[in-house]
Write a structure and sequence with these properties.
8 helices; 254 residues; alpha/beta
């Protein structure tokens, strides 16, 4: 899945993401738990970044903050120069609608068809494209052209994740956030999903941020950011690295 930086002019279509001293806390009973602590990162347009770390490290929180699903307690998050915490309610909704989200548990509507799931995010919106046509095009792009009328509950896990990816792309996002996109899949299907994400990123030039605890997934990205206890503990560029050497860097010898 490695796409070396600068190999395509399409990479300039992605969004620039900048986090400065971002902190997020949560209440758990009487205790206050820090999910992220003074995290600062700059993610370049078109870059594919893996965010790794154990459960509770803050990976999902980081994606939710960048996606505008949550607001940081302190610090700032800028996307293409805009501080997303300063957006109005309507502007925030518009921003969230411009970001592509892929979740581990798919979050499909089980009683709707694959096609209807793909176009659901844009149904209430006025857009400059034919929604049905775009839905069919995206299902074809993810290898499900013949499954458009099949109900989501009748699809396999891998097929459901493909539908979720198509749904995330329906509004032509410049930023794609994927939270454990292969976490519920077997290794072979997971590899197929990674290859698919790589192809789509190369075609559309999106900036892609993947949260994962899977070292194989991380080894195929351009950059590896490690989190532990809500803090950045490592940050490595991996352009053109072969998967074996990258895995050794992530997991250590042996």
């Amino acid at each position: 899945m490695v796409v070396p930086a600068g190999t395509s002019s399409a990479t300039q279509a992605g969004a620039l993401v900048e986090l400065a001293e971002v902190t997020k806390t949560r209440r758990q009973g009487r205790a206050t738990v820090t999910s992220l602590a003074q995290v600062s990162l700059t993610i370049l347009p078109g870059q594919i970044v893996a965010v790794t770390g154990p459960s509770g490290a803050g990976k999902s929180t980081l994606l939710q903050l960048v996606g505008g699903l949550e607001i940081a307690d302190s610090g700032s998050i800028h996307v293409d120069g805009v501080n997303i915490a300063e957006l109005s309610g309507k502007q925030s909704a518009t921003y969230r609608g411009s970001v592509g989200f892929v979740f581990q548990r798919y979050h499909l509507l089980s009683n709707l068809s694959a096609l209807d799931n793909v176009i659901t995010p844009v149904l209430p919106l006025r857009v400059d494209f034919d929604k049905q046509k775009r839905g069919h095009e995206l299902l074809a792009a993810v290898g499900l052209a013949d499954q458009s009328a099949v109900l989501a509950r009748e699809l396999s896990g891998g097929q459901q994740q493909r539908v979720a990816i198509a749904r995330a792309l329906v509004n032509r996002p410049r930023l794609l956030l994927a939270d454990e996109p292969t976490g519920n899949l077997d290794s072979r299907t997971g590899e197929e999903i990674l290859d698919l994400l790589s192809e789509l990123q190369a075609e559309h030039g999106m900036t892609m941020l993947l949260a994962t605890h899977d070292s194989t997934v991380a080894s195929q990205c351009q950059r590896l950011v490690g989190l532990r206890d809500g803090r950045v503990v490592s940050d490595h560029d991996l352009p053109g690295a072969d998967p074996d050497s990258t895995l050794r860097r992530i997991t250590g010898p042996g």
